[in-house]
Amino acid sequence: MADIAVTNLRPDRNAVASQWQLIWWAFRRHKLAMVALVVTVLMYIVAIVPGFFAINDSNQQNARATFHPPQRVHFIDTDNGFSFGLHYYPLKLTRDPETLAAIFKEDTTKPVSIRLFGRGYDYSVLGLFTTNIHLLASSDKSTPLLLFGADRLGRDVFSRTVQGAQISLSIGLVGVFFSLVLGIVLGGISGYYGGKLDFFIQRLIDFVLSLPTIPIWLAMAAALPQGWPAALQYMMITIILSLTGWAQLARVVRGRFLSLRTEEFVAAARLDGASEGRIIFRHMLPSFASHIIASITLAVPAMILAETSLSFLGLGLQPPTISWGVLLREAQNIRSIATAPWLFLPGVAVVIAVMALNLLGDGLRDAADPYNK
């Protein structure tokens, strides 16, 4: 009986859990969101150190590998005895005697082994140090492994796709950061102070939301000088995307501030002598931080798609900068569609990234209100 009494006195874990614990428990029940979280983390790990995951130098040209098709990786070699281990067969180029079309066939007499954590070309890790260790490395440098094939200049599409993840995924985060700062500052001022300031900021938000997004992006991107260095192009494209992405977040923040400024804990903080900055950043913002995180997660894929679209149309980032949009420009002509469909594989990376981030955002948005579960 004593044990039963003690058990009944134990509080429910939901009653004593913090808000972040409730959000995490609710998020874990969202299976698709958990899968999306794993995929998103893996993608950003690749974006942080793309050189480690790339097999070949993304800028190295090979005239002998023009429009080289993707190669298959094998584990069991039965053509040269019976052996196990990652390997691939070089593709031998022949010509159709009637149409002269290029035909690639595997040369099974010359298997090339693939080394895990092998040595390849040198690359920099976040500008801190240089190394040549790669996740996968070919044992024969004269016949490189081309998992996604090669483009019209013989460059490795897989390595370029991995390298492009760094720009395409980071531009989403940086762009959303700028939008977040503008949205929180202007939305917070509008909701906290109200009055004429609120009226002016709301009319500014209405104006920004009324603009046709794609034509504005195209016009502003087309105005950028083509000769600017890659770093400056990257920054300007990010700012362009941010200038049209902050208004919706600002409206959400304003609404939350309007509802919170009359709450008892805000009034208690004022009576306690807390400054306005402390009330805003210490008391009000943390109370709906989960909603902001969910909004950010849903805004990142929109930024990625915007950069991809602008670069694909030739108005965003320009070569030699590598992004997924720049890579998809290689697939704009009929020859690529007919003879080299693997040039569309960077688009698959865009689809996976956008789907993962959207599912992650949906999971976070649903988990942001754990008391409604």
From TrEMBL:
Q: Which GO terms describe its cellular component?
A: plasma membrane
Bilayer topology annotation: Multi-pass membrane protein
A Pfam family the protein falls into: OppC_N
* Annotated GO biological process: transmembrane transport
Tell me the superkingdom of the source: Bacteria
Q: Which UniProt keywords apply?
A: Membrane, Transmembrane, Transmembrane helix, Transport
Magnesium is among the record's keywords: no
- State where the protein is found: Cell membrane
Domain annotation ABC transmembrane type-1: ranges: 165-361
Q: Which residues cross the membrane?
A: 32-55, 167-192, 204-225, 231-253, 285-304, 340-360
Taking the record's annotation, the residue ranges forming a coiled coil are none
Major localisation:
membrane
| Similarity annotation | Belongs to the binding-protein-dependent transport system permease family.
Q: What protein does this entry describe?
A: Peptide/nickel transport system permease protein
Origin species = Rhizobium lusitanum
